[in-house]
Amino acid sequence: MSDHISKQFDLELETVRTRVLQMGGLVEQQILSAIDALLSGDIERFDKVIVDDALVNALEVAIDEDCQHIIARRQPAASDLRMVISVIKTITDLERIGDEAQKIARMGKIIYTSERYQLPRFREVSKMAEVAVNMLRRALDAFARLDASAALELAEEDKGLDEDFTAELRQLMTFMMEDPRTISMSIDTLFIAKAIERIGDHSKNISEYVVYLVKGKDIRHTSIEEIKREIGLTAG
Predict the structure, then answer these.
(1) Is residue 60 in some structural domain?
(2) Where in the cell is it found (predicted)?
(3) Quick check: 152 and 210 in contact, CB under 8 A?
């Protein structure tokens, strides 16, 4: 491969990586807007999150097409091929995070436009959202810096968000048993909490793709201890 072609190929890969981070920024904004609207009851903001999901979908399609063209024209190998594969996987999870943000907005709009016995209390949900957004930011940062150690650390932390969801589920079940009038409110809140928990799952997936990209090791079905032993990473 000539220097000119090699530089052009490197530029194409870097452009694709940049677009992934652009998509990640848009998805993060979608989550923040949905949660802010949830706390304030801003119907217009809910509507904007719902409409803007089309932008996330369009970015996924465009980046995926770029990757297909790179594969067809450049026939990448080794780390370059892992980069393209990781990008394709990452944008799929980002698109699904966008879907979860849209779900939160749709449910929030229903909550605030329907007559309810009482509005849900979103304090715990808001805390969960902070954790999920932080996970997404750190996963994208690990992707940008090709930091496998940071990505592995994040993969370990997803358990905390799962535990928060379980605690919220138990609390909501208690509300429903103590006062049947809270059933509708509790189910709405549970739907939103589950969407946030899924955002954490997708962020964890992205961090796992970073480890694959940097180390060439698929860690999706491997224990953290095994991973550290096999590829010599330490968390923290």
Answers:
(1) yes
(2) Cytoplasm
(3) no
